UniProtKB/TrEMBL annotation:
It comes from Massilia cellulosiltytica. Keywords: Membrane, Transmembrane, Transmembrane helix. One of its GO terms (molecular function) is diguanylate cyclase activity. Pfam families: GGDEF (PF00990). This is diguanylate cyclase. SMART domains: GGDEF (SM00267). CDD domains: GGDEF (cd01949). Residues 269-402 form the GGDEF domain. PANTHER family: DIGUANYLATE CYCLASE DGCM-RELATED, REGULATORY COMPONENTS OF SENSORY TRANSDUCTION SYSTEM. It comes from the Bacteria.
Amino acid sequence: MNNSFILMELSIQVGWRLDAFTLIVAAALAALTMAASMGLLYLASARQACLVDWTVAAALFALSNGLGAIGLHQQAGPILFIACVNALHIGGHFGMLAGVRRHLHLAPGWRWGVLLMAAVLAAHGLMFARGAPLYRLALFTPFVGALNLGAAWLLWRRSEREACAAHTPLIVLQVLSALQQAARMAIMLAYDGRPPGFLGGDFFRTSGALAMLVYMSLATMCCALIVSHQQTLALRRASLTDVLTGWLNRRALHDVATRDFRRCRRNGSAMFFITFDIDHFKPINDRYGHGVGDAAICHVTALSARVLRGYDALFRIGGEEFAVLVVGEHAGNVCAMAERLREAVVATPLTVEGKPVAMTVSVGVAALDAHDQKWEDILSRADVALYHAKQNGRNRVSVHGSDVIGRGQAARLQAVGA
Ligand SMILES: Nc1nc2c(ncn2[C@@H]2O[C@H](COP(=O)(O)OP(=O)(O)OP(=O)(O)O)[C@@H](O)[C@H]2O)c(=O)[nH]1
């Protein structure tokens, strides 16, 4: 049974009375609270731009309800007054969608929102819209429903896996809002614009104001939840990322490698570490200064990331030492990848003050072994191979374990250990 009918029944049995004017004032206050909450959250710390859209949306709702309360108090208003109430209301729903779009890194499209509000104002000039509230409801409900469902659909389709839980309440709220608007319109149409009383008052106004009050209260919570969860994710990402290169740090290495080691052990998949270190890096620092040293590190990581495209497990594990975790690849491909990495650094010198500065890297490769107890065992073998590459003249790839090297690569790569 529809919620509205349940409440009608209850109001008759229990004798509830909620007057529309009080409800509209309460909805305006709830909208003001949301505007203040979103605005303060933006100023206080979060600084997420979607908060600005949601502040504007809530302010439009507050204005719409405030004007609605004045109109109701004066019992009637000119059509321009009603047009402003409706345009602001639809603008508020557009603002909710704009905030969702910006949160998902899409353009908020406020230009379309302003056009929509202007079109709503202009539509009140039509004979049809000048008539009974039922006609306006029939005209505008599909737009509000589309805005509500559009926001829900975007959140559902474009949510990252780790943000799903925080997005779900707003998705549900937007869908319920669209359903509520459709149910309200259907009841109005079914009773030809004159349904029985609702909670002791006029159905059209009382149900609309009550729905608005509930929507504003819940939207405040849903939007705040999304923003605070986003902030938590950003902090977590920052704690796992190296500031200079944007590569993952040692803490992230521990999390990712522990998870992948267990999975590879279970599935019997291959797992490799490629470690590499910039050769003679200290002289670059000493000669050109730390700033150029930092640029050299970024130069090498950018080149490596291009060669290792598709592998996002790239780690900075020391000052100028890096590791790449590769899972499920053939040993031959991993060795070829390590060689391409070395070649890319040789082929692309760093430019300092317009002059090329040659750079090279030494690379070590090791694979998961049947006796390994932990991922650190593979990494330390890759480090042994890297040390071997350094000892044997640098600018070369050494692979731990001759069995890891394919026959085709044996000529170019050096094997270390058993
Ligand atoms: N600019 C800059 N230098 C760093 C950073 N981290 C470590 N270093 C420097 O990197 C240098 C590493 O020097 P070494 O370990 O002697 O290695 P190397 O000179 O590259 O020699 P080999 O590795 O043996 O080829 C040290 O001078 C560190 O101060 C950083 O983030 N930025």
